[in-house]
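INFO  loader      accepted 1 record
INFO  loader      residues=158
INFO  predictor   begin
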Amino acid sequence: MKFSSAITAGLLATGATAFDKYQPWGKRDYSCINVYQGIPENATLSPGQEIELRWNREPTTHCGNPLAEYPASNYSIWLWNNPQRVPNSINFDARVKVVDEIPSTTSKISVKIPTDLPKVDDDSVWYMRLDTTLGSAPQMPSLFNAAGPLTIASHQAA
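INFO  predictor   done
INFO  writer      dumping tokens
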């Protein structure tokens, strides 16, 4: 009996730490930006490294209706460290703006990983989130794409 309790507790702990980046990060938040060139899963990046992203609002496996009939607001790109789902929101250890005010007509950008990232407990659970809002759509939803998890290795020697 003790053995099965330990296994159950371990599985629950493992499941609680898993983060599904395709699920909403808040109310009226949809994974409806199709990034077709970007960062591969589990990539290792360095501060200062340049990344090129290309995207559109075509349907994807995670979003059959990307609300393309509504114009997007300007896009922004953020790095999130260790996001954790809570009701209607996300908790995180750190969040860093990479760039904002990307014109809504843009579908590609080159960005650099910031060199002044905060110190975090785990540098292997970063996510890069590209997002926008649809101000003229009913309930003004936000659309996003999240890449990750990523490791952003610092230049510091161990």
